[in-house]
Design brief:
It contains 14 helices and no strands. By secondary structure, it is mostly helical. The protein folds into three domains: 57 residues; 68 residues, no CATH class; 88 residues, no CATH class. The chain is globular and about 55 Å long.
């Protein structure tokens, strides 16, 4: 994990950490610890001033390349969950994102041994995708993961209890009452790229908008829309500069800036 920031107010540090995390994942992906070079690692571990990240929030990529590391730092040994097996690369990517979000929200840098053991067992992407929605109630993935831990550890970590109980047989896409909802949400979110820019389909009954099927389709549409937006942006950049490189990275950074704007960070 990256070091804590040492300067700035708590609010500035939180803002700077958000900028840093989004940049790191946009450039190196979910396994950034292994993807970046030793020089980039040294740069990142040297940039512990919140003001630097805030001042360069609109040109992080360019400013980062110009930054000279103050000192060489050895990468710390840390636990990293195993790869997931999935039917498609897209399912694997979605499942890894769900898993990482749970780890970040619950344990951050310090993953307890019992959690590591459970993560080592839960390598089926379908498990993560299925339990993200679970029974449609809040914290479904937290409850499902808690059920995989010894009872003592679950209680010590204050994880909610309750195994996954699907509200209907089969996947959401096969439910006749929700097929239209799934397709409509997926189509609209794909067109807009970010759900916050997309109006929800008003022809869907209110009681269905909170269903697991609607949520699954809405999230699937968002994921596909983001990838489509990035691909189109990269193609546009290549047309404008055929000899240029790094179009994919610039497109991901453009998506990152849009998300930051929607998050209210300017």
């Amino acid at each position: 994990m990256l070091p804590d920031l040492t300067t700035g107010s708590p609010r500035q540090q939180a803002w700077a950490v958000d900028i840093r995390n989004r940049y790191v994942r946009a450039r190196w992906g979910d396994k950034w610890q292994f993807a970046m070079s030793d020089m980039d690692w040294a740069r990142l571990t040297s940039l512990v001033d919140a003001k630097w990240w805030i001042d360069h929030r609109d040109d992080v990529a360019q400013a980062f390349e110009k930054q000279e590391p103050r000192q060489e730092r050895r990468r710390p040994e840390q636990y990293w969950p195993p790869d997931l097996t999935a039917r498609t690369p897209e399912d694997r990517r979605k499942a890894m994102k769900i898993r990482q979000a749970l780890i970040d929200s619950r344990w951050g840098r310090k993953i307890p041994p019992a959690v590591q053991e459970a993560l080592n067992r839960l390598t089926d992407a379908d498990w993560w995708l299925r339990n993200k929605v679970g029974d449609g109630r809040p914290m479904a993935i937290d409850r499902a993961f808690g059920d995989e831990l010894p009872e003592h550890d679950r209680r010590m970590m204050a994880l909610p209890k309750g195994p996954y109980v699907p509200p209907h047989p089969g996947p959401c896409e096969e439910q006749p009452d929700y097929v239209v909802t799934h397709a409509a949400a997926k189509k609209i979110a794909t067109e807009h790229g970010d759900l916050r820019l997309a109006p929800r389909p008003m022809d869907v009954p209110v009681e269905q908008r909170d269903s697991c099927c609607f949520s699954r389709g809405w999230r699937a549409g968002e994921a596909e829309g983001k990838q489509l937006w990035i691909s189109r942006k990269a193609a546009e950049l290549r047309r404008g500069n055929p000899r240029g490189t790094g179009a994919d990275e610039e497109a991901r950074l453009a998506m990152w800036r849009m998300e930051r704007h929607l998050d209210g960070h300017g």
